[in-house]
Amino acid sequence: MTVDLEQGQQQPVRARSGLRPEILIVLGLSLGQSAIYSLVTIVARLTADRPLSQQTATLNASQSARPYLDLTYQLLGIFFALIPVALALYLLSRDHSPRSLLGLDVRRPWFDVGWGVGLAAMIGLPGLGLVFVAAQLGINANLVPAALPHLWWAVPVLILSAVQNAVLEEIVVVGYLVTRLRDLGWRLPGVVAASAVLRGSYHLYQGFGAFLGNAVMGVVFALFFIRTRRVLPLVIAHTLLDVVAFVGYSLLPRDWFSWL
């Protein structure tokens, strides 16, 4: 029998022991895997013959010189990146109701949108300052948020990519991971730290400033979710941040971003 932790009860030991491999599998298929690759990448960057500040980290790169093949690759990448989200929600559904547990319903639209916009502003503006400082200190690679060809489908794909990043990261790293660690009986500081360090780790390929900035964002988002039990405002905030970064970089003059 499984009972709800929010009622002050605990899962049976056998159920708890099954959660550890479950968490490792979900993360190994998604952002835990990204964190490992990111760690290897930053080691490679630091041991290269050029300083980190002279290297480039490219997001949303073109996958083919043939436009419609490129579009196909982009859409497939977005689709398959969301499979771990479906897995995480399916696994949570065995013990909980994911929609009500994670706050993925639309019962509080003004709350979700309002907090989403507010969190985006609270994270985004200081984040720009941190990126600038990291660039001046040489502890970040030069970031290229979008490198798609200037075709009709580029902006829609960048928006879809922003939504995919937000859904994947907020549901897996916040909603799923925080819930499962609390199911395991972890204390609040450990839960928040694990979520935040994981978020920072899979951004480490961009540099140490990106790690720090995303870890701080992870602390804020994890605490918000623990307090409100709603992940939808986090998805909205993250989507807004990435849309501004991806589409803005794609449409605005390049010299505006020379400090990245």
Task: Describe this structure in a few short sentences.
The protein has 260 residues and is an all-alpha fold.
Structure description:
68% of the residues lie in helices and 2% in strands. The chain has 260 residues and is mainly alpha-helical. The protein has a two-stranded parallel ribbon with strand order 1-2. The termini are far apart.
Instruction: Give the beta-strand count.
Output: 2
- The global form is globular
State the low-pLDDT regions, or none.
1-14
Report how far apart the termini are.
Answer: 52 Å
Structural class, by secondary structure, is: mainly alpha
Counted up, domains total 1
Order of helices and strands: HHEHHHHEHHHH
Rg, Cα atoms, Å: 19 Å
Helix content: 55-70%
Tags for this model:
260 residues, mainly alpha, two-stranded parallel sheet, 10 helices, 2 strands
Give the secondary structure arrangement, pairings included.
Blueprint: H1 13-28, H2 31-46, E1 56-58, H3 67-81, H4 83-93, H5 98-102, H6 109-137, E2 142-144, H7 154-183, H8 188-201, H9 208-228, H10 232-251
Parallel strand pairs: 1-2
Helix pairs in contact: 1-2, 1-7, 2-8, 3-7, 4-7, 6-9, 6-10, 7-8, 7-9, 7-10, 8-9
